[in-house]
Amino acid sequence: MDIPKENFSEWYNEIIKEAHLCDLRYNLKGFVVIPPNAAQVMKTMYRIYEEALEKKGHKPAYFPALIPERNLKAESEHVAGFVPEVFWVTEAGLNKLEEKLAMRPTSETAMYPMYALWINGKSDLPMKIYQSCQVWRHETKATKPFIRTREFYWIEAHDVFATEEEALMQVKEDMETTEEILHQRFGIPFIFFKRPQWDKFAGAVDTYAADTLMPDGKTLQLPSTHMLGQNFSKVFNVKYMDEDGAQKFCWQTCYGPAISRIYASLFSTHGDNKGLVYPFELAPVQVIIIPIMKKDTEAEVRKKVEELKAKLSHLRTEADFSNNTPGFKFNKWELLGVPLRIEIGMRDIQKGACVVARRDTGEKKEVKLEKLEEEIRKEGASLSENLCKKADSWFSGLMHEADSDAELGKAIEKGGFVRIPFCSDQKEGEVCADRLKEKHAVNIRGSRYGDKEKPKGKKCVACGKPASIFLYAARQY
RNA sequence: GGGGGAUUGAGCUAACCUGGUAUGCUGCCAGCUUUGGGAGCUGGUUGUCAGAGUUCAAAUCUCUGAUCCCCCA
Asked: Residues 256-315 of chain A: which lie with beta carbon within 7 Å of strand B?
């Protein structure tokens, strides 16, 4: 493959096809088949996430995919937000169902009626449960593989606490988890925004969402964590008996990292003109050994390669003995994003060495065989670190500021986020957000988490009234 | 929501206007040769989106339907 990443849209379609990341031939709009090349990475991402959540006190569970209509409709804001996108099951076998069943678009209304039964007293709290599952949303916007599909793969964690403070702490913990995994381990840069009131999760008190950037400068929402307050507990009767003997409503949060979407940003962030580039930890094949064989040396080289493979069996190591030329194999495994490649032929064997090549930099170097394991470990770690650093520096170059409508119009063309003074992130600010959307095709992402600065003396870029807060604008997926 | 494109083997494609044995490349399988940056030869391999109509004869003409992909907001 040789598509310049500058033309991101074309690059994205091409890499999906060339590297077999998903098969679009399943003839149902918005539903894609995810073959092993992508599924292996997604499973690793799932495993990393699940381990992290469990380490922080979450336990796994599985809830039904179908939700009775009356459950889904219990919380009015929630239902208003999701119903336009729900797939309904209305028939079973030969009969019409008496009550429609929703294919879960998210699982609050499947889980919380059970929570009401499970939680009785303070000793049941906090209750932190997650499930890894698929959800379905009949998206009306244009679908795009991994980024916006009508069926997608995610984890949803739903936590319940006795107090508001604990719930707020959980929101913070979710943000930390996101930083530890998405940024530090996957190398994906992002910013946490507190969404404006008009753009929060349906039914939530507040929504905090991690927004990353795609190579074309448009933003993509990754995990979000929601402070649900008591909105759902009051509807679903999630209560505990306090020490004073009174029944009290619980405080809830939920957190939803969408693995399929995170995967999109993973390969889009790190990939290059030659194809995929994976962090060492996530690569389905971490080390590929390419034997260089002549007819008379084949047996000897083969033996050596098997030896190396066994030596590196603690990693996902493979050897390519296929009947292709070395050049073909180099290109193939580079396209597939294998972080490290070992080349070995008689020339090297005689020196007691092999050649190690890095996917990210293309550097090749000779490594003595007795130092191989150590070198592989070092180079693997260094590669992941380099990917993260490269992504960070690219990302930080896309942070802009604007104090007026005209400046915003200019800055947004560069791609990325633009920090602007804004009248309000409460409901009344929506008019201004709509105006900017109309004029510049930008979306207001919210205030940056932790940004305490006040826009003293500045005016809202949309309405010109005194600004109360700095918000960020970006074009979005 | 607006626009565009398309449906011929696993993928890309020719033939369609002017109806008559469906073309080539890639892939895949087998064999031989080959291997330090996309190898070569020989042989093999599967197909006209669905339904109806016109006709001696339909990938091609007519009608009806279905589906997908892409771009922009």
From this structure: 274, 292-295, 298
